[in-house]
Amino acid sequence: MKKNTSCGCGGHDSCPPKMECDTVKSHSGECSITPFALAGTVEERVVLADVVLQTQVEADIKLPTFASDIKHIRKNVKLTQCKVIRNSFDPTNLTAKLFVEGFVHKNIQYAEDCHGCIKDFSVNVPFRCFQVVPLSQEALFPFGEFSIKNNILERREISKDGHGADDCTTGSLHFEIFTEPVQCKLLFAVVDEWDLFRNHDNWGRFNKITEKMDVVLGLKLFQLQQEPTPIPTPTGGNGFGAPETIIDRFRGIVGR
């Protein structure tokens, strides 16, 4: 039976748009542009690491009918998640936490009896693992520099009698920092397995396969970065100073 998700009660894995109840009228003014000296003019894909991930998987597969022999098993690996996040205990950002989920898609062809009848059965065997991985280049996780728990700074004015805050006037400074995610690419996959035939009938046929798999994945971790380069000092001397970064300009705006 097909699941009905038209009521908005869930069932979607992708991120949906924010719900809006109304659209209000607004008045906008002119825009102001303020350039800042972010050194480096090219964004490029920086390879952070090439890693080999290995995990063990055990699964029981129930065939729809009894089999006398397995003729062929075709295997394909598919990742459903490959997420890299900051390692909170590494201030150098030269390690990261890697979360991987996926499945091994198996197409099993088997014989039911001695009369040449071949059956075809497909199944997905899921796997998941997580690990801290070393990086050959520093990953950019600028949000890790901030210790504010809530990213809204509230402004309040004192009331006319001076006895507390004015409940009819309030303001806030809200900020968001958008970073390039560390991306992941599957380079190769190796599945090494043993198949154990279980649950035999009186004729020696079986309808259960216990699989013990060693899944090996080759992964490339990379991130889109704008590599900063030294720029001349404002004095015009021969020395070079550090370029202004996005974080420097952000701190100047929010006053931190």
Q: Which helices and strands appear, and what pairs or packs with what?
A:
Layout: E1 43-67, E2 69-86, E3 95-111, E4 118-134, E5 152-158, E6 165-174, E7 183-200, E8 206-226, E9 231-232, E10 240-241, H1 246-254
Antiparallel strand pairs: 1-8, 2-3, 3-4, 5-6, 7-8, 9-10
Descriptive overview:
There is one protein chain. With 256 residues, the protein is mostly beta strands. It has a domain at 43-141 and 180-229. It is built from one helix and ten strands; from the N terminus they run ββββββββββα. It has one helix at residues 246-254, and strands spanning 43-67, 69-86, 95-111, 118-134, 152-158, 165-174, 183-200, 206-226, 231-232, 240-241. The strands form four sheets. Strands 1-8-7 form a three-stranded antiparallel beta sheet, with no helix packed on it. The chain has a three-stranded antiparallel beta sheet with strand order 2-3-4, with no helix packed on it. Strands 5-6 form a two-stranded antiparallel sheet. A hairpin with a 6-residue loop joins β5 and β6 (165-174). The longest helix is centred in the C-terminal third of the chain and has 9 residues, at 246-254. The protein is elongated. It starts with 42 loop residues before the first strand and ends with a helix. Mean pLDDT is 81; it is low at 1-6 and 235-240.
